Amino acid sequence: MGKYTNKTLLTKGTTTRTASDIEKYLLKEQIQDWRDTDFQKYKDCSLEEFLRDCDSSQLMSDCDPQDYKRQEAIWELFTSECVYFLDQLMVLKEVFLATLTNLQMRDYLSDVDTWRLFANLNELCLVSFGFLTSLLHVIKESWEIPVAGAGPTLLELLHKAIQESICHCLQKYCLNYSTALFYLDSLKHREDFGSYVKWCERNQECRRLQLRDLLVAPLQRLTRYPLLLRNVGKRSRTEEEESALQSVVEQVDTSICDLEGKVKWLDNYQKVKLLRDALVWLPVWERDKRAFIPENLKHLLKAVTLENLIAHRCLLHEGKLVLTENAKLHDVYLFLFDDFLLITKIKRNKKKSTGPEQNPLRLPQNQELDQLLKEGCTFTVLDQPISLDRLQLRSVDQLNAAASGLSQSFIIMHQNRYQQCIAAFILQAPSEAVKRVWMSEIEGAVTTLNSQQPPRVKSSSLWVESSQI
């Protein structure tokens, strides 16, 4: 997506739209009020205040202290859901999404993809509203406060809401979360989009929170459910009720674990897909200056392509190190896959790409690769992939490191099938801690790979070994 200046135009047909036009339109925009509900009235109330408001304070004196604590735990679940629904989801929906939708109906920002930014936000609002309505009904029934119609018990409600709607909808949103952040970053340089975001963030309903702060709210809510539900379970009346609530907690925990698995897979898939296009595999006559290939024969060596070599592999670890080569130091970037290691040189390009669209709930990792891919860098593979069952790792101790001037360094040796060393790479890490992490990751990957392969058995005439050379 190209850059936009203050004169940049977003066009549809022959209609010209500028950031100034958006600002003028937004002067007349009104945000719909969504706070005229019982949820707004109760969200900052204590249980005692709620009962007093419902003329049920006399019941408190007759209530068992342990049961009252249980009701307080349920009330905390309710009020925290009110805050999530009213102060986060509905702010996103009415201030940001509704405003953007109104703008697009008038041909402003028509190229902005609302799904990539907000995913299934409308569905989340409906689910949360339904859960709040049912939960308030349960709370009132438990205190014998008159309500219209019969409703489910607390356990029935939690089982149904958690299993059938809440976790499913939150998973869908979370799987789009990182995509939303990267898409937001790709739009932030546009003045027309910036005018829209600034106008929304200045709205008093945002309470000084930025769009990025609000987008993370559903993820935080998902991880908070187990804590709130366990708190209710600890104060259960019977062991059966506690056991039933524990099964609800386990449903949420399972959902979170399942989501983390999807996140890891999606993160690896997206990153490897982008990396595949950024890797440069030099032909043998460029990689090895001793290899002379006449021009009329080079086409014979281009038949084999390595672009898809990493397509179905798992990227375990990556990061920047320094390579000592011909008495010179070179910045290199290493990619550790589940069965081989790539050592590459970084080539920075002036032209920037849109950057990787990561997965939701992404676990803390080295963000340097994301930035390099975002800048459109390429990675030229040195030598050849080093199969992990052909790799030997050696740490350079402090004495030898000091003598050679190679602090925090280690050596990677590449052996052929006859255990002859055909290449060696002396690599320096920026710190001793980073060095230990790299050595641990490589050793772990080698151990895992070797445990999955049949052992090599030495005989008098040959080696029985893996097919990876």
Automatic annotation (TrEMBL):
Gene3D superfamilies to which the protein is assigned, alphabetical: Dbl homology (DH) domain, Pleckstrin-homology domain (PH domain)/Phosphotyrosine-binding domain (PTB)
Gene Ontology process terms (BP): Rho protein signal transduction
Gene Ontology molecular function: any one: guanyl-nucleotide exchange factor activity
Top-level taxon: Eukaryota
Domain (PH) ranges: 314-447
UniProt keyword annotation of Electron transport present: no
Domain DH: 69-262
InterPro entries recorded: DBL_dom_sf (IPR035899), DH_dom (IPR000219), GDS_CDC24_CS (IPR001331), PH-like_dom_sf (IPR011993), PH_domain (IPR001849), PKHG5/7 (IPR040181), SOS1_NGEF_PH (IPR055251)
Pfam families linked: RhoGEF, SOS1_NGEF_PH
Keywords, sorted A to Z: Guanine-nucleotide releasing factor
Protein name: Pleckstrin homology domain-containing family G member 7
Gene: LOC112232085
